[in-house]
Design brief:
The chain is built from 8 helices and 9 strands. The chain is an alpha/beta fold. The chain has a 5-stranded parallel β-sheet, with helices on both faces. Strands 1-9 form a two-stranded antiparallel ribbon. The longest helix is centred in the middle third of the chain and has 22 residues.
């Protein structure tokens, strides 16, 4: 890192507490083939690229085995990823796609019945959106908010109540699965596995284990996006840089240090987010091409594509 490591970590800790997101206007560079134009505020999810207006407008045409309908929910990582993922799914799977992320959230925020102790309004709860959109896939991407920012966690934090934190997360994963299943029988959940955390590496490992157990129990899917932003020999060891892939070398902005053959996953002042634009207080999709975001969203898109392929044959 070009700045002292500890300084970046401390700055990142402040960003985590605030749950801020990259924001500098409408997205102008998502993927080379799918630039976006919509923006998203910190309270109301906006339409994703290609949608005419409002959450769900791109998914209103219904379900199709060969043209899947995808709903993407999550926290600040989903917020920054949403337009790139939508572009990939439309290009590669002809998907109907809707995203409704809220920064700073955790699983309980998307549960119906959380009332006012939630950062997600009732109309955008997971089950409410599933009943409305009837998606084939519901993609859930949650880092695992552990700092007491989310009211519906009732003050349970990783630092003070580790057993309580994981017990609550496990219970909420089961409740959210049940609510989605009841809202639309047959919808597949895609649990997105998270990348390394330099401060609490074991926390992310155990959060991913919660997702893995839940997916096995309910017959749902896993997208190991975290592996795509980890070193090949060290899945849970955080790194700011990785060797450029062939695609990144062929598309200049994605290989940020071509001279050394490596690319940046994070900014010096933010070890959590993968957007290479500065964070601000108003969350929006990432406005610049960012290798980490492309790697993560490709892993998600590939998982959905593999699940769709047998149905299309």
């Amino acid at each position: 890192m070009s700045r002292p490591w500890i300084g970046g970590v401390l700055a990142g800790a402040l960003l985590l507490t605030a749950c801020g997101d990259p924001s500098s206007g409408p997205e102008t560079a998502s993927t080379p083939s799918a630039p976006g134009t919509a923006s998203t505020t910190h309270r109301r999810p906006a339409a994703t690229p290609g949608a005419s207006a409002g959450v769900g407008s791109d998914a209103s045409a219904g379900r199709s085995a060969s043209r899947p309908t995808v709903l993407y929910l999550g926290d600040s990582l989903a917020m920054e990823n949403q337009q790139v993922l939508g572009g990939l799914l439309r290009d590669e799977e002809r998907a109907r796609y809707t995203s409704a992320p809220y920064s700073g959230t955790t699983l309980c925020d998307y549960l119906e019945g959380t009332g006012e102790d939630s950062l997600v309004p009732p109309k955008d709860k997971a089950a409410a959106l599933v009943r409305r959109l009837r998606p084939d896939f519901v993609v859930l991407q949650f880092w695992g908010n552990a700092w007491g920012y989310t009211p519906c966690m009732d003050g349970i934090t990783y630092d003070k109540e580790r057993d309580g934190y994981f017990a609550r997360y496990t219970a909420d994963a089961g409740r959210l699965t049940d609510q989605i299943a009841e809202a639309a029988n047959g919808a597949k959940i895609v649990w997105v596995l998270q990348g390394p955390d330099p401060i609490t590496p074991d926390r992310v490992r155990r959060v991913n284990a919660v997702y893995e157990r839940q997916a096995r129990a309910s017959g749902d899917l896993l997208a190991d996006a975290g592996k795509a932003v980890s070193a090949a020999s060290a899945r849970y060891t955080w790194t700011q840089y990785l060797p450029c892939t062939a695609y990144e070398r062929a598309h200049g902005p994605y290989c940020t240090q071509p001279g050394s053959g490596r690319t940046a996953l994070h900014r010096d002042d933010d070890y959590l987010h993968f957007c290479l634009a500065p964070t601000t207080s108003t969350p929006e999709p990432c406005p610049v091409r960012s290798p980490g975001i492309l790697r993560i969203t490709r892993a998600i898109s590939r998982t959905i594509g593999q699940a769709v392929a047998p149905a299309a044959d």
